[in-house]
Amino acid sequence: TGMVNDKKSALVLPLFPKEAIYYFAKANIPRGKPASLLQEEANAFGLSGKAYTTTAKAYAAARAKAGKDDLILVTGSIFTVAEILPKPKG
Predict the structure, then answer these.
(1) Cα–Cα distance between 68 and 71 in angstroms, integer?
(2) Quick check: 76 and 70 in contact, CB under 8 A?
(3) Of 62, 58, 12, nearest to 36 (Cα)?
(4) What single-letter DSSP state applies at residue 89?
(5) How far apart are CA 60 and CA 42, in angstroms?
């Protein structure tokens, strides 16, 4: 998950499940919230996970940890999601 600086994460983070494992990342845009700051904010709501320097690294870590029946949800900012989507060919 990743967010932008000008969004109020305190309105969203309480809605996230506490039993999930989180991979915090900063979207590669100037408005991206630093992953370590997002991690601190999430910890205040009982959410635990690790901060990563890029969305790609966070996604790779989630994929490496996930079991065959696990679900990986990329969420937060559309900028974060866009970095994970496959790029169109051509």
Answers:
(1) 8
(2) no
(3) 58
(4) P
(5) 21
Q: Tell me, what's the pLDDT at 7?
A: 86
As given in the structure block, the two tokens for residue 25 are 């990342």
pLDDT tens-place values along the chain, 90 residues long: 999 998 899 999 999 999 999 999 999 999 999 999 999 999 999 999 999 999 999 999 999 999 999 999 999 888 899 999 888 887
Contact of 80 with 55, CB cutoff 8 Å? yes
User: Per-residue DSSP letters for 25-86?
Assistant: E--SSTTBPPHHHHHHHHHTTT-EEEEESSHHHHHHHHHHH--TT------B-HHHHHHHSP
SS3 at position 10: helix
Are 18 and 42 in contact, with CB atoms under 8 Å apart? no
Q: What is the Cβ-side half-sphere exposure of residue 51, based on CA atoms within 13 angstroms?
A: 15
